[in-house]
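ESCALATION

Customer reports they have been waiting on this structure for their group meeting. Please prioritize. Original submission:
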Amino acid sequence: MYIHSMTDTLASEHRPKILIVDDEDNLRRILATMLKGFGYDVTAACDGADGVLKLDADPDIRFVLCDVRMPKMNGMAFLDAVSGRGLQVVMMSAYGTTDTAVEALGRGASDYISKPFRPDEIRVSIERLMERDQLREENARLRATVGAAEAFEGFVGRSPGVKRVTEIIDKVAAYPSTVLLTGESGTGKEVLARALHARSDRSSKAFVAVNCGAIPESLLESELFGHERGAFTGAVRAHPGLFEQAHSGTLLLDEIGEMPLSLQTRLLRVLEANTVRRIGGQRDRPIDVRVVAATARDLETMAQEGSFREDLFYRLRVVHIHVPPLRERTEDIPLLVSALMDRAASRLSRAPAQFSEEAMAALMAHRWPGNVRELENAIERAMLMASGDRVELQDLPADLVPKDGGAMQLEPSGDLSIKRHTAALETLLIRRALSATGGNRSQAAGLLDISYKALVYKIRGYGLEDA
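Update from on-call: job pushed to the front of the queue and completed.
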């Protein structure tokens, strides 16, 4: 079973290269024949010095089987010579003792095998090192992904919807064009507005945000455009508005759909003329502001109905970015959980916790009407309720826990999404298979009845590298 699946995997992917370093010709031939049968690309060297030359000639070699006792350069000296190359080295010896093994591992060996050995011992050791090497690469890719997400101020994800959003932001961030961000509440529109600012040449200037629905109409005009001293009762001094405060920077007009029609006319004039006149003022002041508008409402329908100016709608929608709701990108949930867990742990001065497979499956199955904001609150609540460093199903908010209190509910009320339940079920089964096999992906693939390559793809897609 193992040899078949391993050979299929290696035939479809890059064949790993192994260097055998041993002064016994017969052993080199036996090992080479066996490893080639497993699908590896094999090179041999007669001693440590020859092994170093072989490595210099072929930098693609990642794995080494090396004898301890050899002429010219022995195994320990070889380990010292190749230190820092990122190799996975298995030491072999017919004269091995515990002290020899400890010394070899202390000098950088990845594993130690005593001669004589069974073919299975070599196979299992190489397989384990391959998985370790692959995990290190996957973790590096994950860190790169998280690093990119952090550059988006926490907008985490690798789903197609997230990639479309971040690609557009990367393309337009450097330009002053107006951007309209639409999407449900809690999807991260302000986060993306900050990302636009951070990636622009305005990043060293002010980022100013205002919620147009949270300020009374009588105050919003003064807040946006400013006023002169004596312009109205209580105006005891001149006040520059947010457009002036955001000069050379970025102004986020959040909940733009709540802006009264009377102010929409003034806003359109400011956007078209790039000037602003304070209330009670006699002159126009030039401004250089990148405007980003955000809303959870359907501005196009509002424009057709007359509750939002159509000309302003088109002026704001030079670049339109729709932020998908969390229920349409459930594959991003494991990554989001990791990022939000770290943030909550820092805020609460606690160590990050791990989610059990049942708890993670419940998160994957939930519809998340409050989107990422709801997920963040659920994670913080779970951290506070958890005993120790593991979040169990019962630690989640009540509306996330299946009614039977146990296994994931595959048909929650009103939710018939095949995509969402498939992702949740696959995540649960993969976690269980990896747990049952002690993390051995080849064996887990066999339990799941899928190929090794398909399992690795799903592990990456669901963010299960640390499962």
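Sent to customer with the following note: The chain has three domains: 2-142, 160-323, 328-461.
Escalation resolved.
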